[in-house]
Design brief:
By secondary structure, this protein is of the alpha/beta class. The protein has helices spanning about 15-25, 45-55, 70-80, 100-105, 125-140, 160-165, 175-180, 205-225, 225-255, 265-290, and strands at about 1-10, 30-40, 60-65, 85-90, 115-120, 155, 185-190, 305. The chain folds into two domains: about 1-225, Alpha-Beta Complex (Spore Coat Polysaccharide Biosynthesis Protein SpsA, Chain A); about 225-290. The chain is built from ten helices and eight strands. Helix 9 runs antiparallel to helix 10. The chain starts with a strand and ends in an 11-residue tail after the last strand.
C-alpha cells in the first residue's frame, strides 16, 4: 500500500533531514511518497529539499513563488498525493513520526480520518491557552467532540482528501468539514516535542482570521444548500420584534392618546422591520445564487517548481 506524506515547509532548513529520516524509519514495509510544499521559504529549505529529492525519487517537491499559507499548501499537496492513506504533519519536528503505525492501526479500524491530540503540549502558555479556548468553541460550534483541532498530525483515507476544498485558515476545521460530509472521525493522543530549530510562524492575527473562517465553515457545512434558513430566521426574529414594538406604540396612541413623535422606540421598531425584510430578501437571493452557481471556490496558486511530480499530475500553466 502506498502512503503519502504531505508536509508544508516555511523556513525549516534545519529540521528537514531529520524529519525525512524519521518518516522513512517509521513507515515500515509500506511504499511511501513524501511531498514537501515549500510555501515561499526564504532560507535554504528548497536547496536542501532538492538535494534530498535527487537522492530519493520518493521525495517530491512543490515550490510556491511566495507564501500562500498552510491551507493552500495542504490543498495543493492533496491534489498531488497518490497514496491510499495520506498523512499531514508539520516540518518543525514537533510531530513525532514514531506515531505513524498507531495512526494506521486506528484508520484500519474503519475510520476515514484520524486526528492527533497533543495531550502534553510542549509550547508556552500564550500558545496553549488560546488553543484550548479555540478547541472548546470549535467543538461546541460543530458538535464534534475533538480535544485538539489545532494538531496538524493527521491521516486521511484518499476519498476524504478528494472531497476537501480548503483555503484561508480552514485547515484547522478539516475534521468538521469531513464530518459534515459523512466521514467517520477519530482522535488519538500523540507525543508532542518541543521546538528545537526555527521559530513559530503564527502570530495573534491568525486567531482573527480563524474566527472568520469558523463562520465560513459553519455556513458551508450547515447552510450552504439552504441559506434562507439562516437569513430567514434572523429576518423573522427582527421583523417580529419590530412588530411587537410597533403594536405597543400603536396601543399607547389609540387607547391612551400618547404622542409618538418623541419616542425612540418608534424608530427602533421601524428599523427592525426594515432590517428583517432585508435579511429575508438576502436569504431568497442567496437561494437563487446557490441554485445557479455550482463551482467551488478555487484559490489560484503560483508554483515556480515541481520536482519528481509526474507530468500528468502537475498544475498546468502554474
Amino acid at each position: 500500500m502506498l502512503i503519502s506524506f504531505v508536509i508544508p515547509v516555511l523556513n525549516e532548513q534545519d529540521s528537514l533531514g531529520q524529519l525525512t529520516q524519521e518518516i522513512i524509519r517509521n513507515v515500515g514495509e509500506h511504499s511511501y511518497e513524501i511531498i514537501f510544499i515549500d510555501d515561499g521559504s526564504r532560507d535554504n529549505s528548497f536547496a536542501i529539499l532538492s538535494e534530498m529529492a535527487a537522492q530519493n525519487k520518493s521525495i517530491r517537491i512543490i515550490r510556491f513563488r511566495r507564501n500562500f499559507g498552510k491551507a493552500a499548501a495542504l490543498q495543493t499537496g492533496f491534489r498531488h498525493a497518490s497514496g491510499e492513506f495520506v498523512f499531514t504533519l508539520d516540518a518543525d519536528l514537533q510531530d513525532n513520526p514514531i506515531e505513524i503505525p498507531r495512526f494506521i492501526a486506528k484508520l484500519e479500524e474503519g475510520y476515514d480520518l484520524v486526528s492527533g491530540w497533543k495531550a502534553k503540549r510542549r509550547d508556552p502558555w500564550h500558545k496553549t491557552l488560546p488553543s484550548k479556548l479555540f478547541n472548546y468553541v470549535t467543538a461546541r460550534t460543530f458538535h464534534l467532540q475533538l480535544k485538539d483541532y489545532n494538531c496538524g498530525f493527521k491521516v486521511y483515507r484518499r476519498e476524504v482528501i478528494k472531497e476537501l476544498n480548503i483555503y484561508g485558515e480552514m485547515h484547522r476545521y478539516i475534521p468538521a468539514l469531513a464530518n459534515a460530509l459523512g466521514f467517520r472521525i477519530a482522535e488519538i493522543s500523540v507525543e508532542h516535542r518541543a521546538r528545537i530549530f526555527g521559530v513559530s510562524k503564527y502570530g495573534w492575527e491568525r486567531y482573527l482570521r480563524g474566527f472568520f473562517d469558523l463562520l465560513t465553515v459553519k455556513m458551508v457545512t450547515q447552510y450552504i444548500k439552504s441559506p434562507l434558513y439562516l437569513f430567514g430566521r434572523i429576518g423573522l426574529s427582527s421583523t417580529f420584534l419590530g412588530l411587537v414594538l410597533s403594536g405597543y406604540l400603536a396601543a399607547l396612541k389609540i387607547f391612551w392618546g400618547q404622542p409618538l413623535s418623541n419616542r425612540p422606540l418608534l424608530f427602533l421598531g421601524m428599523l427592525l422591520i426594515l432590517t428583517g425584510f432585508q435579511f429575508i430578501s438576502l436569504g431568497l437571493l442567496s437561494e437563487l445564487i446557490i441554485n445557479r452557481v455550482s463551482d467551488s471556490t478555487k484559490l489560484p496558486i503560483s508554483i515556480s517548481a515541481l520536482i519528481n511530480i509526474p507530468e500528468q499530475d502537475s498544475a498546468s500553466g502554474k
